[in-house]
Amino acid sequence: xxxxxxxxVCERVATDEVTTLFDDYTDNGIIEEDVKNQPNLIKLTMYAxxxxxxxxxxxDLEKRLTEDNIKIISIDTDIFDHRCLRTLTVTAA
Length: 93
Description:
The chain is an alpha+beta fold. The chain has helices spanning 15-22, 54-67, and strands at residues 3-11, 31-35, 38-49, 72-80, 85-91. The protein has a 5-stranded antiparallel β-sheet with strand order 2-3-1-4-5, with helices on one face.
């Protein structure tokens, strides 16, 4: 079994907008985590089915966040399976 993990760190005030974008890729809900020593930031994580293309999801989310003028701190994507872990990290400038 494989799945894609996508995590976005953004300003807390953008939580609703970002989670709405995740709805296109998951029905499993979203994990919200505080960012240590950054009370204005939140980490939002979702798990998508591996039938999606990880790079396509990342590119789509980046494009839509930019179009909506939502500042992101980082987007992390991982592919998990029982044999390996592949990680790609992108940090916004």
